[in-house]
Amino acid sequence: MNPYKNAVFQLNQIAELLDLNKEIIEQLKLPETLHKFDIKLKLDNGKIKVFRAFRSQHNSARGPYKGGIRFHPQVNESEVKALSMWMTWKCAIAGIPYGGAKGGIICDPKKLSPGELERLSRAYVRKLSPFIGPWTDIPAPDVNTNSQIMAWMADEYIKRQNAKRKMRRWGNLGANPLASFTGKPLVLGGSQGREEATGLGGVYILASLAQKLKIRKEKLKIAVQGFGNVGYHFARLAQKAGFKIVSLSDSRGGIIGKQKPENGRGRYLEVERVMRWKKKTGSVVGFPGTKTITNDQLLKTDCYVLVPAALENVITKNNAARIKAKVVLEMANGPTTPEADEVLHQRKILVIPDVLANCGGVTVSYFEWVQNLQGYYWEKAEVLAKLKKIMVRAFLDFWQNYQTLKVTPRMAAYALALERVVGAMKIRGS
Length: 430
Ligand code: GLU
Known about the structure:
Blueprint: H1 3-18, H2 22-29, E1 33-42, E2 48-59, E3 65-72, H3 77-94, E4 100-106, H4 114-128, E5 137-141, H5 147-165, H6 194-213, E6 221-225, H7 229-240, E7 244-250, E8 253-257, H8 271-281, E9 290-293, H9 295-299, E10 305-308, E11 327-329, H10 338-346, E12 350-352, H11 354-357, H12 360-374, H13 380-405, H14 409-428
Parallel strand pairs: 3-4, 3-5, 6-7, 6-10, 10-11, 11-12
Antiparallel strand pairs: 1-2, 2-4, 7-8, 8-9
Helix pairs in contact: 1-2, 1-3, 1-14, 3-14, 4-5, 6-7, 6-12, 6-13, 12-13, 13-14
């Protein structure tokens, strides 16, 4: 259950398959730089609490480091290292000019006041500010972080830069310093469409897959585990696109539509109404017309597409044999362990890997960065059209590899990523 071990295992697998240069693969196993530090935070009650924080900068062969920052009690070095490696592959698959990074703070943001959260976010950036920036490393939101946190972080970064150079306001930094973070609010240089980009990107991938498999959307019944930013927008937009949502869950439990008396079939869920319920009650559980299930039961529900959209290591060797779905669309990062991957492969369940399925988020982050650097902002329709183009292109490149290489879908996606990353490293002479 060690995500970094899983990431290295996958890298070894693809290196063997493609017979890649051993020295380069050894380099790729470790992040180029790993920042680890403690943040001393003064709590509202006057006491000091120490929080461990990380930023893993995995690879910069194709461009500056890019990747989110998560706030979670289970953040650890192994997880951050794995997630930064996955970001390298993800950016390469999307074909956007970045390397990979990931950061995190071990904390439970639900137990912090808004003031504490702001001070923690700013302190994180104060420590990291010499090592990040528009052409160095561009962080973004991840689990439990959002546009408000990015706004505090970007503001802190700009203040540090200006203080260092004894300049005021926007300084003269060569690049718009707002391009140092993505996933910012619209009023502070954010991009249209960023909020729903990861979910929408996943819907584009699923629609492309349905076309290849020649299955009509309404036949694709979907169960989604996780109802945060990614799970919610994915479910909402999938429903809007014509797919059917049969089951949803959050950290407190899951729901499945009750059977209709007329035909015994399960009711489909209306995602926006479920969200309104969750806002009112704190959870999806108890939504009228549904039966309560556990998160584990959700993984085994009768559906065509299972969508893990929460944390890593939820599909394991203990439950992979009982998954009924024919497709697993990984909207979370690293939800399937390598052992489970093997079981699913043998059972002919198609696993569309995270590095492809959820690359829509970082793709619109890229658009945000481009807009910040140009100082010219696009309309939502333009952002979404450009996102669709990149997602469909990535899917077709992946599918081509999947058909020709005759390997698992994950390895087909990795082949694409490694070709691009190793290609850049070789041509640069590293
Ligand atoms: N945290 C997101 C991811 O894992 C987005 C990263 C970004 O936009 O840089 O893909």
